[in-house]
Amino acid sequence: MAVIETQGLSKVYVRDVIDTEYGRLRIRLTGRKTVALDNLNLDVNKGEIFGLLGPNGAGKTTTIKILMGIHFASSGTAKIMGKPLGDRAVKSRIGFLPENPYFYDYLKGWEFLDFYGQLYGIDKRKRRAKVEELLALVGLTHAANIPLRGYSKGMNQRIGLAQALMNDPDIVFLDEPQSGLDPLGRKEVRDLILGLRKQGKTVFFSSHILSDAEMICDRVAILFKGKLRSVGRLSELLSSSVTEWEIVLRDVDERFINRWRDRLERVVESEGEWWLISKSQDLTDAIIDAATRDGGKLSALTPRRQSLEDYFISEVKGS
Amino acid sequence: MKEIVAIALNTFKEAIRNRILYFILVFAVILILLSGVLSELTYTDRGKIILSFGFTAINVFAAAIAVFVGVSLVYNELEKRTIYTIVSKPIGRWQFLLGKYFGLLLTVWVNIIIMTLVFLVMIHYYIGMAATDHGGWFTVVGKAIGRAAVTFVWWPAFKETAVIMPVILVTMLEMMMVTAFAVLFSSFSTPVLSMMFTVMLFVAGRLNEDITRFCVTLYDRALAAALEKHTSIDAQLSPAYHFADWAAHITPNLGAFHKVVEQAVFEQKVTLWPWSIAYGFLYTIAVLALAIMIFQRRNFK
After folding, report:
1. All domains of chain A, ordered by start, with CATH?
2. Interchain contact, B84 vs A98, CB within 8 Å
3. What is the ipTM, given to two decimal places?
4. pLDDT band at residue A309, thresholds of 50, 70 and 90?
5. How far is B291 from chain A (nearest CA, A)?
6. pLDDT by residue (tens digit) across B163-211?
7. Do A119 and B88 touch (CB under 8 A)?
8. Per-residue b/e over A100-121, b at no fewer than 16 CB within 10 Å?
9. Which of A149, A250, B198, B222 is 20 to 30 A distant from B100 in Cα terms?
């Protein structure tokens, strides 16, 4: 079941517009139009971790801003949990962490979370318990009484994540949640996102850190210059992109290998086994058939797929 | 409602951490205290000078707080992008803006109360010192603080200061309008522009009655010319009249509130006109409605 749907979602920014009339004199200065998002169609299913990937300026943040009601779409529609954007009941079931968040730095950690709890209408007793629980979850119990201006970037990101979970949301929107974090911080965020999935929550996040996305996403969408390049499960996107096969054969002699050597990418002999790298599935099948017929044995066959990064670069370059 | 209160209290917390606020407040308190000293230099009624000076100081500095603190409140939320997480929560943009408004208003009112208390203490101090057997400086100051507290709670407790709290209430009402303007401009423009617009409207509002008088004069002249030339009055009305008429209608009539101050200073009485009070509320509601209309459809940076 799709919990987030967008249909033909577009956003065009028009800057520096002056349109004024003095009698017959009309001054009109229409600034440059920037298409930040162009006809985006997406479905995000319940309980999945969905990664919105793309380089800077691809339209990731614009998409999230529209979904969060920060910006209005120029055209197209979007629904969250089957309801149009801005629905109050839906808003009470979602959490959001913006990119490079900046919060009220005069508030202490617990005051900050307590304030957001008030916006959700959570009563005082429950709020207090929730604040303690979240501070522990993001590892900031020790900093509960420190004003946010004393927080490091990583701490700021973590308290931001905590506020996004204040209402125990069904869907969590995270805009570049790992940006600016060190490897340890990134791992903590990854674990936290995986933990959310275990609880049955849907996570919609944007990122340009592809290795992290590859590790945790069920599905990804790749945006480039405001357009959706591809969307799907990682296995679907990358299975069609197997770049080479690694064949490991035993009990075959050098004469057999020499028959194929010219058509192979690499050939290495090690401890009685031959490691062959083939670029074609047909060639791979032919080698395995021939080796088996000649009494050889197949020790291993490993299709080497593109990494998400390879795929991403080829998609982006292809456009 | 709870959401508006939460945002208002958070805004108040933010505002009271603003150094400009303390700068203005300290300056205001110094000026109020100086009014007593300055009054000694005059030949006229000292009481009138103290009252007039004190009321003006409270009024101008309250407006300064509304302007200097208010114009950046909404803008900062947009600039620092703190608004992102707020609008994603189950609250309307209108609730956010009203929360900001009430938080700022609370800040202005709390400062008015502080200035008023200082003002009351100072007046009671001078009244106490004027007595032949005042019992020493400490006694006078102690009594002045006590009497100021009593006056604050029960306005007519002392004859000399009975007019102060009604005037302060009117000032609070006036600031309700000025604060609404600060929030309105802050909701769509930069702090510098907002400050300029708000100050201009405050000044124009104070001159509103003069503009109206100017309109009447121009109208009378046009009428006389029309009668003389046997033409319609519309043909005789100058563009200046139309502009002034438009300005008189659109700017807030803050002069109406100033009348209360004049009455308090010169007649030692205050009449709270229900229509003036209703006007203050209605004007504020209209300005806030306009601010909400603008803010409701705004794309945040």
Report:
1. 2-238 (3.40.50.300), 243-310 (3.30.70.260)
2. yes
3. 0.75
4. confident
5. 17
6. 788 888 888 988 999 899 888 888 887 888 888 888 888 888 888 888 8
7. no
8. ebebbbbbebbbbbbbbbbbbe
9. A149
